Amino acid sequence: MPVDEAISTVSPLTRYDWPALLQQLDERGFAVFPGILDHFSCDALATLYPHETAFRSQVIMARHGFGQGEYRYFSYPLPAIVQQLRQQLYPLLVPLANHWATRLRLPQHFPAEHQHFITQCHQAGQCRPTPLLLRYGQGDYNCLHQDLYGEQVFPLQLAVLLSEPEEDFQGGEFVLTEQRPRMQSRAQVVRLNKSDGVVFAVSARPVKGSRGDYRVLQRHGVSEVTAGRRFTLGIIFHDAA
Ligand SMILES: O=C(O)CCC(=O)C(=O)O
Ligand SMILES: [Fe+2]
């Protein structure tokens, strides 16, 4: 059976307490979605990694100074579960994305449906799919970065941990930093178990201050994996130039 067919469908995302999660995203720039995929799907996605025909390109992180480890960008059509997750999560995040754009005084208005946003990306020359699988072994890590691939930027993205901490790997913590104007950067470790997703700001988000909103810049990365193997699914909503 092709691996894609072995992967079950996404459970409805409406099962989450969206008002609470959106509030957390707004206030802290990230929110954890426990068990966003089932373990079977996590394993099926991780085993896709060696299937080269599923991917459009591979990046060996050390060659670019991105860290150590590697990742592969899926090609279109995406595996069904990745496509579903991207398409179903997007509209739930659009109200916050538009609220942030207004507060950051950006002209961007995100359409309600992901397909319409993808059409905008393609019209802007960003035609290549960005969802990816990342693979880390012992000693690997992912330097702090922002997943920006052109002028079209959806301000939130998802990462799903496909491996079990302490069982499949040691170390390898998901790290977020935020840089506030005229202040030193603050770091946050996000504790994830296998199948948990974290939605976080790609780059800029507004934070309420005493004199109105100011702009905070976030970056994300992964600390060193000290043993074992760690896989992640990354879902970025804009496409790449
Ligand atoms: O492996 C991770 O947890 C981080 C993945 C990542 O950088 C991404 O999904 O954009
Ligand atoms: Fe990333």
Explain the overall architecture.
By secondary structure, this protein is of the alpha+beta class. It has a single domain, classed as q2cbj1_9rhob like domain (Jelly Rolls, Sandwich). 26% of the residues lie in helices and 33% in strands. A 7-stranded antiparallel beta sheet has the order 1-11-7-15-5-4-2. A hairpin with a 6-residue loop joins strand 9 (174-179) and strand 10. It is globular, with a radius of gyration of 17 Å. The relative contact order is 0.22. The mean pLDDT is 95. Bound molecules: 2-oxoglutaric acid and fe (ii) ion (FE2). 2-oxoglutaric acid binds at residues 134, 142, 147, 159, 174, 220, 222, 232, 234. Residues 145, 147, 220, 234 line the site of fe (ii) ion.
How is the secondary structure organized here?
Layout: H1 3-6, H2 18-28, E1 30-33, H3 39-48, E2 55-60, H4 61-64, E3 67-68, E4 70-74, H5 80-103, H6 114-123, E5 132-136, E6 141-145, E7 156-161, E8 169-171, E9 174-179, E10 186-190, E11 197-201, E12 204-209, E13 212-222, E14 225-228, E15 230-236
Antiparallel strand pairs: 1-11, 2-4, 3-6, 4-5, 5-15, 6-13, 7-11, 7-15, 8-14, 9-10, 9-13, 12-13
Bound molecules: 2-oxoglutaric acid (AKG) and fe (ii) ion.
